[in-house]
Protein 1
Amino acid sequence: MFPVFPVVLSSFGIRHFAESLRATKNMNTSDASTATPAPRSGWLFRIDNRFLAPVLITCILAIGDYQYQILESYGRTAAAIFAAIALELVLGRWDAGRWPHLASAYITGISVGILLRSTLWWPFILCSLLSISSKYALRLHGRHLWNPSNLGMSVLLFFAPNAVASLSQQWGNDVWPLLVIWLLGGIILYRLGRLHITLTYVAAFLALSLVRSAWSGDQWINEVAPLTGPMYQLFIFFMITDPATTTRTWRRQCLVAALVAVVETILRLNQVIYAPYYALFIVSPVTNLLEIWWTARQALKKGDPAAANAKNVVTELTSN
Amino acid sequence: MKVAIKQPLLLLLFVGLLGSVFILRPPPDHADQLRREASMERYGFCLEEVSKKCGIDFVHQAPTLDPKLDHIMPIVAATGASVSVVDFDRDGLADLYVVNSAVGSKNALYRNKGDGAFEDVAEKLGIAYLNRPGDGVCMGAVWGDFDNDGYEDLLVYRWGKVDLYHNDMGKGFIRVTERAKLPAWVNAGSAIWLDYDSDGWLDLFIAGYWADDIDLWNLKTTQIMPESFQFAKNGGRKYLMRNKGDGSFEDVTEKVGINSRRWTLAAAATDLRGSGYPDLVLANDYGVNEFYANQSGNVFSEIGSQTGVGELSKSGMSVSFGDVFNRGKFCIYISNITEPTLLQGNNLWAPKARREGVEMQYTNLAAELGVERGGWSWGAQFGDLNNDGRLDLFLTKGYISGSDASYWYDYSRIAGANTAIISDAANWPAMKGRSLAGYQHKSVWLNRGGKFDDIAQAVGVTDTLDGRAVVLVDLWNRGVLDVVLANQKAPLLVYKNAVVQENGWVQFELEGTKSNRSAIGAQVKLYWNGQVQIQEVSGGNGYASQNQRRLHFGLGKEATIDRAEIRWPSGQTQTIRAPEIGILHRVKEPS
């Protein structure tokens, strides 16, 4: 079990590697902090990353379920995956006129399968459909504003609390899976140039946990406890670092991560159980819109070739 | 298509999907309360709470443990309300034994006077003051005639000492624990009587909850909590005590292969695989449930995962068996937690049609049948409440009813934490008088034949006390099942049942000769109107409860019984042709 686990865990990091590659292609400005390192030697990097990520995430799902029964049910997880893929096919073909690569949809479906808890079937399907449709419906100039699975999860947790819950499972009773996840997650994010987001968030979370502890009178360990669960590890390594929905510069990314922790603290002080999901749901679109507006405005001022496009952006944002 | 058209359509799709969340989400629980006449007409029965009318004024008191646990005392001292049915004096009337759990508090034995009233005779008979300092506190009691003298004896299990009381012909009880050689200290969550080797002597299964080396009143450490919310194996050990037939028991747990250290809250035994020997099902808190298949009375094999019953890690609270489809096969109902932040769902495990015997497999039909969502569930019992020929399901629920403030947020933080945090009680956030899944209505699920409907409040079950144990019993020999509820830190409730006259019934009271005299483990298959229903005499099931010994079958309208087939624990079978309807049949095992 132990030798296999680290390899499998890296799959989440590889997902970001693949997405970073795609994200950087679409970026208008070069940004050293978000530039993705070139593929390196070794079998892990010789395989097309778009195929590697789904394969490895499937492995983590299989091993996680075999060892820790992390899945609610095989059928519902499959339903989440198929729903995500089916809608991606339809919308991708219709929107762009070509068949989309399905890795992203597969990953969204599998994330829903891991993170969502429900005794019913429809939440898994609907969460995937909401997540995928949000990528196409809620975007501005090709850039979507929410992390898809964060949006899907937040909507269902908020509007259907009697039907769904989030993953509250543990990685067994030992500390080593926790340490392995932190270690590997850290290494992978470092290679991808996104570790600063996670570290900023964790540092802010820990600092604010002191505030929460002082405010509520609870022990500090109670405030830190959620950080040790797998839901949080998925959140801090793989959700808030999603390249497609984070801001573009190093400083802004750190600021956004800290802001998520601040909003989360406000929610936590109000006893909101799913505070991290909701915090990211609130902060992500606001900061993305601000950045789009700011970047466009700067481009206009400098007489950038993209000024015409930027003008439209500024007009749209200021008129809404 | 132009972008200007596409984008609004995509938005429409998204909004449509968003709207479907509101359509698909479960509606809030609604409660239609009906007048008695309307309830009788619509459902064929109604229940009326009559505890005070019949002289029962028992209020359960929870234990107070080591002060180091003060901040979470309502969570750790959340059990102990228990009720069991016995006819201790063999007068043909069902009596009730209820335990208390505060040091110094009294247990009660409510003797059924037959005139509608009960009197507490526990003190007079020597089984009232069983919460003495240093002995631990009572968590439950089960009755079984361990010496086959014709009178039901009493086993009281505690977080502490286990005590066996010999019934002196209904005139008093004598403590025989030392002679019986029972374990000195078990932080027990459950205990049942069963004859696992079918030798005619009742054996005992005692399931530990907390680890045995913990003295909850003098803690050496606060690291006593489950090491995980899903994978905990640091609970109490189990004891299978074989009755040697000379008044003593021997510990055969290891010998028969039972080595669980899970946090067992409920155990029940019945022959689920048709082997002739009782299998054992354990509902475990903080982990998967266990299914111990009895291999001819020699060893037990844990096949929970193989059967499906032990597949998913949940918070098992109660085990009960019922033939809900009238197919002559038992389903297994295990209650769990179904709350907005913890959606485990209760399980109704139905046997797969083509997988029987050693290859037995079950499938969970709780959602399909409508018995999945039970709040913070506790004890559940099957019984035909309106005598329509189908087994209904009564479920108690509710964890901690405190102030308006909720503890759920804090509970969610600690429940997902790593073992280093969750296992130490000192790390658990203080409750500060808050509620955790409190003030919940009970569920009375009426079996409609393929679907269950919750009609609790419509038939008069309106209380919101923190329910724990439930028993179904014909208290006044009227051919109907009444309901008794034991509530944590709250009064014992007695719901008297009124059933429409046109539905028939029949009852069987069995007495073993070759088999154990209590006939625990005996099965009756009743064939009537082209259907068959199986029931078994139980030595304890549900949560901290034991139903009446006699078996009650509702028959519906214009019933004609073909036969009743009895399979005794000894293996002997007996057939009663066309038993008369509307009476109790007392049947003695042919010698």
Protein 2
Amino acid sequence: MTSASGQFFDGESATAHRVEVALEDGGLRISGDSIGKSRFWPLRHLKAASPMGPDRPLRLSNELSPMERLIIENQPMIGMIKESAPQLTRSLGMSAILRFSVLTAVGLVIVAALGYAVLSMVPPLVAQIMPEDWRDRLGKQTEESFVGRYAECKSPAGLRALGVLGNRLYEGNADIAPDFTIGVYNLPVINAFALPGGRIVFSGKLIEAAKAPEDIAGVLAHELGHVNNRDPEAAIIRLTGLQVLISLATGSDGGTVLSNLAGLAAILRYTRSAEINADDYAQMLLNRSKIDPLGLKRFFEAVKKIEDQKAKAGVSIGPLGGLLSTHPATEERIARIKPLQNGPPRPVMSEENWQSLKLICKAN
Amino acid sequence: MAETELLEAKPGTKTGAALPKGVSISVTYVPRPGLLSLAIVNFLLNVITLSIYRFWARTKVRRHIWSSIHINGEPLEYTGTGKELFLGALIVFGLLIMPIVLLFVSVSLWFGPQHPVLGLLQFMVTVLILLLTGMAIYRARRYRLSRTLWRGIRGTLIGSAWSYSLLYFGSLLLKGLTLGWSTPAMNVELQKRITRDMRFGQTPFTFRGSPGPLYPAYAVGWFGAIAALALGLLLGGGALWSLYYGVFKDLFAEGRQGDLHWVGSLIVGVLIAGVGIYLIYGIVWTLYQAREMNAFAAYTGFDRARFRLNATAPSLIGLWIGNVLIFIFTLSIASPLILQRNIRYFCDRLTVDGMVDIESIRQSSELISKRGEGLADAFDIDGF
């Protein structure tokens, strides 16, 4: 049997045409009184217009004249057409599955690469081209929203000592060191961090924990490394982008989640290479100012000891925002700190100033 | 075909006019097996592709369900593709979502993360989204109609998505200003606009009717909702009051001796009360919903046929409860079954009175857009 009757829609009107369908020469010949010229649909261009099923009429379309439809109810004829045009019954071929998987994999890799680029490469670039007044404003806002609720330590003698420290580090490096300001806050953690716009924040506890002015000078020099590299700006830009994305995706306000100290510690957690860069920069500044870098080393060792003990005792250091969380004091970093290369160190400040600095949060 | 006898015009009758040609129309849903397995495969592929597959998944589900809707024995055909939906979504992402993200990032860097300007911006974006919602609805409807074929003829919407969008936005404002009381009038207006823009081939749909008959049901819904709300406030307030005086006072007085079981049962009580109020709220509004659906069908005509829908509140609630249960117990995997249930409900209860002259329906000459539903997908307008 090579022919059967069928119904034909010409795509011009909704009128159903009675037609004869014949299977011949690699195609279907469709003819009928009311359709004018007979049609020839090559088998390889046949498509199922509607999902097929057993005992259902076969509804065909043809890629060459996409609006025309042919409906065949004769099951033996349907069987023959299916046999002659295997693409109708082939569900997902292996090649289609393979192609789909490859496309998906490539797509996901592209999305991942884009995401990585956006989150890791774009923020540092934006940070570099950011105008100074943007950086200042951003730093001011960050300082206000993260540490503004804590008391600022500002005993006049302590501030004077802080000025001496800053000048001492700046004097040999006026040509290269970035502009910076220092603020000491009564934070509940031992930490120091750089904020956008060269704002460096020390916690009072860190100053109390220091054994010598060189320790503080070392930490300050390290933070200046971050300032010089604009790491804080990049981190804030990255965070803002993430928050907007999250709030868009969830429809919620993602803006207030991280406005506390632990949040800040999480934001200012830099990569290992950023930390090592800051260490190297610090060492260069200290060398040029003839400040003993071993102060920084000693300080890192002391911090590491405290944190190791805490870890051993099973005390969680997670939400504390402690020094370890933003400045992991690894053996590697401690080992990289070398003694002063060019001659004997000079003191950072007088003993009197040092005592005033230690009391910056206590005295008024 | 049996109907062809009806098509014979009888010329030369006494009035001199030809007897109108046409056939009666029946809409039936003839379910086909395989939807559940399709849903499961779609779910797995969605997981693997981090939901990118959803456009192709949606297309396959529509193909399946469309082909189960039979009009006079001939099924509908869905000709949309996953690629079209995907491109539509990509364009909306590039032209709408990305610029908004960049705007938010630069504004919050410029003014700071807690600046009131961000709130203003958030408000403006919300207004923008509301302004575009009508457009999303209209364009999605147009896309689906243009991809729906019956007897080789496709549907379309011929109007402007912009003007519908403005009407939609205006209706939202007015509904708010009138505390909801303009809802029936505005809904009729919106339905009228979109129905009169609808064509099958070149034959228009008609819409004629007033919101008047909807108001009794709306009043029941409105006052019922107020009563449910008042009851909720009363119960919730009472629960909080007794929680405070019954438990916290004891806690402070006796030093953490409070009976936690009592707190637990109180919370369960509040939850049950909440669900109860939600149900009352749902029931009173479903009454209106059924009324509105029936009225919209009755107001709609095509050629010389009119539609009649027999939606009732109990059956709608049954449909809705079934849908919720399916959604919960299959973790949304079987959502295509929910879509099928909704469409089937509609087909089963729809009657078409009068005749349609099918033979005279000509193909639509509207251009077909290459992309679909980007906005509707972005705003999550509906799950079709």
